[in-house]
Amino acid sequence: MPTQDPAKPAAKKAAATPPAPERTKSQKQWDVMDDHDLRIIETGTIAERLAGIARDLGAVDKGQRNADQKYNFRGIDDLMNALHPLLAKYSVTIAPRYTRLDRFERPTRSGGVMSYVVLQGDYTFTCPGGPTDWTSLTVTTIGEASDTSDKATNKAMSAALKYALIQTFTVPTKDMDDADRVTVESAPMPTREALIERIDKCCAKMGMPREDITQKYRERHGGISQEAFENLAPEVLLPFVVSLEGHVEQQLQQGGK
Fold first, then answer.
1. pLDDT tens string 200-240
2. Contact between 202 and 212 (Cβ < 8 Å)
3. Order of strands, edge to edge, in the sheet holding 136-147?
4. Is residue 99 part of a domain?
5. Are residues 217 and 156 in the same domain?
6. Residues in contact with 90: Cβ distance below 8 Å, sequence separation at least 6, in sequence order
């Protein structure tokens, strides 16, 4: 058998090369670019860059579920996760501007108040200047949403942005009616007489006349008279009544008036 020459050191076993980390989706996108892609990234107009994003984007899965109406939909976060690396690749930014804000309230079947917001979103897609001055494009959509807390405006902004992205990049979708994850049905608006009756019940619980219990509200709204207050539209009276009922219940639970 051959023996190791003592004059020669034993050969070291080559260390195993660790596997390369898996490349992210955004990194892989740079592996399939040709000269046309590079030209668009360096000097392309905003229209060329948006077309490149639409080409690379592909379909976005419906990864979220509406629990009330039992359907799947694409949320704004699904779209942003898919678009973010492409917007960075093509050096495109989005600047939002919101106008024409309309807000109104309706009662819910549980006795609360549902806030509704409708707004217009103007989204300007911008890219660095190149050989042409066509570096921006504005897309306008409408967002509508409802919420029983303070998130109606946020939801409406998300809805407007979501459909601006879907329509700008023609994202494949089968179901376009996917605005809200949870749907809350509103009850009919109570009559003015019914609201005044609810105010009188609060007065009885607090041992206060109607004029006193509405005084602070009337002072904050131009010092209107009690008669003018009682002739306000139900849509205006309802938020006051709901707030008053909550305040009265809180005071009674605390054991004081």
1. 999 998 899 999 989 888 888 788 899 988 888 888 888 88
2. no
3. 93-107, 113-126, 136-147
4. yes
5. no
6. 40, 41, 44, 49, 50, 52, 53, 127
Say if pTM beats, i.e. exceeds, 0.85. Answer: no
127 within domain boundaries: yes
70 and 164 fall within a common domain = yes
Residue type, 24: T
Instruction: Clarify whether residues 47 and 163 are in a common domain.
Output: yes
Spatial distance between the Cα atoms of 187 and 174, rounded to a whole number of angstroms? 31
Q: Tokens 């107009």, residue? A: 45
CA 174 to chain centre: 21
Degrees to nearest 5, angle at CA 253 with 250 and 254: 90
**CA pair distance 45, 137, nearest whole angstrom:** 10
Q: Are residues 44 and 145 in the same domain?
A: yes
Expressed as residue numbers, the domain containing 109 is 30-168
Locus of tokens 């629990």: 67
> Which tens digit of pLDDT belongs to each residue from 126-159?
998 754 557 889 999 999 998 888 888 999 999 9
* Contact in structure between 82 and 169 (CB atoms under 8 Å): no
Residues 119 and 225 in one domain: no
Whichever domain contains 45, its CATH number is: 3.30.390
5 exposure class (CB count in 10 Å sphere: 0-12, 13-18, 19+): exposed
Q: How many domains does the chain have?
A: 2
The reply to whether 45 and 163 lie within a common domain is yes
